[in-house]
Amino acid sequence: MNISFTPELEQFIQSQVASGKYASTEEVIVAGIKLLEESESIYKGRFEELRREIMVGVEASERGEVMDGETVFHQLEQKLQQRRQQTGE
């Protein structure tokens, strides 16, 4: 596989090898791909978590367990003020 890099990326890769952190260009590229893979995994996990949280909200709404937006924001503001008082902000 042939890969072309911008001069800036190539310089970065070479600087990583020169620093001794990586033994070769291939190691730098593999490390970058592993970081991308990890990032994607975290994203997918968070996406699924958000999907579950949304479903909890939808189900509560279907049961009639809802609050108007003004009440919700008022409660959130109160919680924020309490946290600030607790942390001394």
Automatic annotation (TrEMBL):
This is Type II toxin-antitoxin system ParD family antitoxin. NCBIfam families: antidote_CC2985 (TIGR02606). The keyword Transferase does not apply. Keywords: Toxin-antitoxin system. It holds the Pfam family ParD_antitoxin. Gene3D superfamilies: Antitoxin ParD1-like (6.10.10.120). Belongs to the ParD antitoxin family. InterPro entries: ParD, ParD_sf, Ribbon_hlx_hlx.
